[in-house]
């Protein structure tokens, strides 16, 4: 006798299993799709973040570069201003010193050595002014010699009155002690000189006023 075993299958169960497997696969695909989409979004977000950081870094670098450039310009401009101020101060001081030295020397006279006074009177002056002073000195000799004039001088002060592009107008004050035949005991006075100096021409004295104050009248300066 032969025994046979019958295996019965449930069609509905098979269908449910297939459906379940299909649903599982669908869910897996959906999850994969969602994950892929998230990864893509993440990459795009990451790329955007990197680009934003790059742009921000570049902007910061640019701002710093501009700030450094502006600061450098300001420092350079400030340095130029300081240099210009120092140059102006140096020019003023030199003009005052040159003028005061000249005025002091010009105020010293001795009837026994008029030639030396004439040399001091024209030293450092322009050719035109030198010619004028020489003519004036010749006239002054007519007073100096007969009166036996002797003057000694000491510098008092000098002040730049104006500076017109390197042309300095300077007021000088010199203390003068004058002795002559009419005032043998000597008279003390202050002579005032107004000088114009050209710094562009080796500080040449181009004009002078007040030089007659040391020879004001036949007695002494007033």
Q: Structural class per helix/strand content?
A: alpha+beta
Parts with pLDDT < 50 across at least 5 consecutive residues: 1-9, 212-222
Strand content: 15-25%
How would a crystallographer describe the biggest sheet?
5 strands, antiparallel
Q: Largest beta sheet: what is the strand line-up?
A: 1-2-3-4-5
Distance N terminus to C terminus? 171 Å
Shape: rod-shaped
The chain-level mean pLDDT equals: 79
Number of strands: 5
Q: Please tell me how large the radius of gyration is.
A: 51 Å
Run of helices and strands: HEHHEEEE
Could you outline the blueprint of secondary structure elements for this entry?
Blueprint (H helix, E strand, L loop, with lengths): L10 H96 L2 E2 L3 H9 L4 H18 L5 E15 L2 E14 L2 E16 L5 E6 L13
Antiparallel strand pairs: 1-2, 2-3, 3-4, 4-5
Helix pairs in contact: 2-3
Concise account of the structure shown:
The chain is of the alpha+beta class and 222 residues long. The protein has helices spanning 11-106, 114-122, 127-144, and strands at residues 109-110, 150-164, 167-180, 183-198, 204-209.
Overview of the structural elements:
With 222 residues, the protein is α+β, with helices and mostly antiparallel strands. Helix content is 55%, strand content 24%. It contains 3 helices and 5 strands. It has helices at residues 11-106, 114-122, 127-144; strands spanning 109-110, 150-164, 167-180, 183-198, 204-209. A 5-stranded antiparallel sheet has the order 1-2-3-4-5, sandwiched between helices. Helix 2 (114-122) runs antiparallel to helix 3 (127-144). The longest helix is centred in the first third of the chain and has 96 residues, at 11-106. It is rod-shaped and about 140 Å long. The relative contact order is 0.10. The model is unreliable at 1-9 and 212-222 (pLDDT under 50).
């Amino acid at each position: 006798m032969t025994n046979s075993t019958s295996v019965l299958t449930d069609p509905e169960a098979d269908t449910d299993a297939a459906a379940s497997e299909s649903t599982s696969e669908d869910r897996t695909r959906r999850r994969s799709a969602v994950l892929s989409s998230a990864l893509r979004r993440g990459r795009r977000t990451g790329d955007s973040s990197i680009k934003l950081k790059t742009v921000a870094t570049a902007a910061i670098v640019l701002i710093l570069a501009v700030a450094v450039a502006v600061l450098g310009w300001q420092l350079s401009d400030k340095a130029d201003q300081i240099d210009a101020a120092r140059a102006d101060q140096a020019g003023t001081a030199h003009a005052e010193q040159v003028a005061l030295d000249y005025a002091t020397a010009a105020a010293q006279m001795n009837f026994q050595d008029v030639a030396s006074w004439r040399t001091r009177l024209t030293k450092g002056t322009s050719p035109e002014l030198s010619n004028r002073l020489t003519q004036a000195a010749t006239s002054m000799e007519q007073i100096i010699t007969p009166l036996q004039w002797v003057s000694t001088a000491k510098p008092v002060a000098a002040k730049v009155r104006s500076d017109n592009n390197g042309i300095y107008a300077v007021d000088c004050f010199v203390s003068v002690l004058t002795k002559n035949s009419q005032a043998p005991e000597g008279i003390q006075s202050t002579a005032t000189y107004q000088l114009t100096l050209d710094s562009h021409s080796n500080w040449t004295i181009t004009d002078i006023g007040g030089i007659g104050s040391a020879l004001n009248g036949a007695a002494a300066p007033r």
